[in-house]
């Protein structure tokens, strides 16, 4: 029998809500700080929720920043392409089917791509160039 949760809303849903409301990528500890009012104080609760949300492809991990964003991509593939501003850390998804097809073609050359590949292109965004 499943153990009853001490949280009124499942932590996974709370983490998802925090990321949906975020305007920038968030670290696990920034998410944890935002959930303090929900009586969530253990980092492992957030890390477990993030792990499941990643597997469900509802969020992306921006490895270069070690932060997370909500998936707003409308992709039907396991490859995501992002620009990441090196100054303000703003992240934007890119939809480039020809690039995705090129990456997928690498499989034919026996290059094994992990199931959920995120490709991050470092840029300086227009706002930071001003």
How does this structure look, described?
The chain contains five helices and five strands. The chain is an alpha+beta fold and 130 residues long. It folds into two domains: 11-70, Arc Repressor Mutant, subunit A, CATH 1.10.10.10; 79-129, Ferric-uptake regulator, C-terminal dimerisarion domain (Dna Ligase, domain 1, 2-Layer Sandwich), CATH 3.30.1490.190. The model has no long low-confidence stretch (mean pLDDT 86).
Task: Describe the secondary structure blueprint for this structure.
Blueprint: H1 11-21, H2 28-34, H3 43-55, E1 59-62, E2 67-70, E3 79-85, E4 91-94, H4 97-105, E5 117-123, H5 126-129
Parallel strand pairs: 3-5
Antiparallel strand pairs: 1-2, 3-4
CATH topology of the largest domain: Arc Repressor Mutant, subunit A
How many β strands by DSSP?
Answer: 5
Largest sheet: 3 strands, mixed
* Mean pLDDT metric: 86
CATH superfamily of the largest domain: Winged helix-like DNA-binding domain superfamily/Winged helix DNA-binding domain
Runs with pLDDT <50, length 5+?
Answer: none
Strand content: 15-25%
**What is the approximate shape?**
globular
Main-sheet strand order equals 4-3-5
> Which series of helices and strands comes N to C?
HHHEEEEHEH
Give helix % range.
Answer: 25-40%
Identify the CATH architecture of the largest domain: Orthogonal Bundle
Distance between the termini: 58 Å
Structural class: alpha+beta
- Count of DSSP H/I helices: 5
What would CATH call the class of the largest domain? Mainly Alpha
Radius of gyration: 17 Å
Count of discrete structural domains: 2
């Amino acid at each position: 029998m499943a153990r009853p949760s001490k949280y009124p809303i499942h932590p996974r849903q709370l983490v998802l809500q925090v990321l949906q409301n975020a305007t920038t990528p968030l670290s696990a500890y920034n998410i944890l700080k935002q959930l303090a009012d929900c009586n969530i104080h253990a980092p492992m609760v957030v890390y477990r929720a993030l792990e499941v949300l990643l597997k469900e492809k509802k969020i992306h991990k921006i490895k270069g920043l070690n932060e997370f964003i909500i998936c707003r991509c409308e992709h039907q593939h396991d490859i995501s392409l992002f620009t990441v501003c090196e100054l303000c850390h703003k992240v934007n998804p890119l939809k480039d089917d020809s690039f995705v097809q090129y990456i997928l073609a690498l499989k034919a050359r026996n290059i094994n791509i992990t199931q959920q590949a995120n490709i991050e292109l470092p840029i300086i965004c227009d706002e930071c160039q001003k």
